[in-house]
Amino acid sequence: MVLAYSGGLDTTVAVKWLSEKFGAEVYTVTVDVGQEDDFSKIEERAYKAGAVQHFYIDAKREFAEEYIARAILMNGMYEGVYPLGTALARPLIAAKVVEVARRLGADAVAHGSTSKGNDQVRFDVTVKALAPDLKIIAPARIWGMTRAEEIEYAKRHGLPVGEEHKKYSIDDNLWSRSIEGGPLDDPLAEPPEDAFKWTVSPDKAPHAPTYLTIEFEKGLPVAVNGEKMSLASIISLLNHVGGANGVGRIDHIENRLVGFKSREVYEAPAAVILYHAHRDLEKMVLTPRELRFKHYVLDPQWADLVYQGLWVEPLRNALEKAAEEMERWVSGEVRVKLYKGSLWVVGRESPYGGYSKELADYSAGWYPSDEEARGFIEMWSLHSLTALRRRK
């Protein structure tokens, strides 16, 4: 069996449990998508737990260029708020686990998701699409142990499990940091400051604003303040600068795909900055019909599919193809202002922008004649006025 291994309690216990339950040789795979972990310690923990062989896969660049890039093009925010950090990473991790399983000739793959979370769907559906012949095992859905019982199991078997009593459940990658559990389970309580790591409290942010100019080509960011860099580097930079200004904190009630609402807290400075900058540039470039179709139809539908674990759904590709045709023209620069947790777009320009000062200027711009204006208003309102009169 090949196990997607995070190094946490569930997956460390799973190494031993799978070996005992199925008599299996367990291989572990840790996929680096930008999480702030000590991968050497994770590898050491895997072997101490009984893994036959451990694999470390650096997928940060692929995560940025093949997954996050699509989220930027599609303004990927589930329910308009969550930047899909965990949801984007899961199909990539599942794909890498399948690759290792194929290479080893494994019979099954396993993951640490519970029956209560969204990730089980994301893992299972992706594996079913890529390797329908492989058996999928989720120990935490089977063993029936509470967290306390897992800890006791680990101690009984001498498993190297650290941080058993963490205050929060954390999942982080290049795109976002999600924080759950503990005091956050009370939806009325303000998140304690110790829940945050990437962002400073807005009241402790600098007293002077920070300005950034982000350059886009065909919908994707390619430079910050005139310096060209890779997408992964841009994300890292914006996470740092945004976080230092208190930008990127998200707190909302989320509709999980498994049937209940949960209180979710995230840190995602780069995602928040790029989301606002990209949407603003789209407003500058796209026609009103293109804009409304993309923002109200394509984007939310795409975000729903990704959140719901349907990365393999053919409709996702179709939505992206439609968006890519529009994004051909979404190039230019957007200037943003960061100040004490707030973000404003304060300027934008594009060679393909539909804005015309000559048309918009009230002091000396173009004006239709009175006859033209009256004719336009008459025709424009005819449907509404006719219906109103008939219904009266």
UniProtKB/TrEMBL annotation:
It catalyses: L-citrulline + L-aspartate + ATP = 2-(N(omega)-L-arginino)succinate + AMP + diphosphate + H(+). GO terms for biological process: argininosuccinate metabolic process; L-arginine biosynthetic process; urea cycle. Pfam families: Arginosuc_syn_C (PF20979), Arginosuc_synth (PF00764). The keyword Ligase applies. This is Argininosuccinate synthase. PANTHER family: ARGININOSUCCINATE SYNTHASE (PTHR11587). Homotetramer. L-aspartate binds at T114, N118, D119. L-citrulline binds at Y82, N118, R122, S169, S178, E254, Y266. GO terms for molecular function: argininosuccinate synthase activity; ATP binding. The gene is argG. The keyword Manganese does not apply. Residues 2-160 form the Arginosuccinate synthase-like N-terminal domain. Pathway: Amino-acid biosynthesis; L-arginine biosynthesis; L-arginine from L-ornithine and carbamoyl phosphate: step 2/3. Keywords: Amino-acid biosynthesis, Arginine biosynthesis, ATP-binding, Cytoplasm, Ligase, Nucleotide-binding. Belongs to the argininosuccinate synthase family. Type 1 subfamily. Signal peptide: none annotated. It comes from Pyrobaculum aerophilum. It is found in: Cytoplasm.
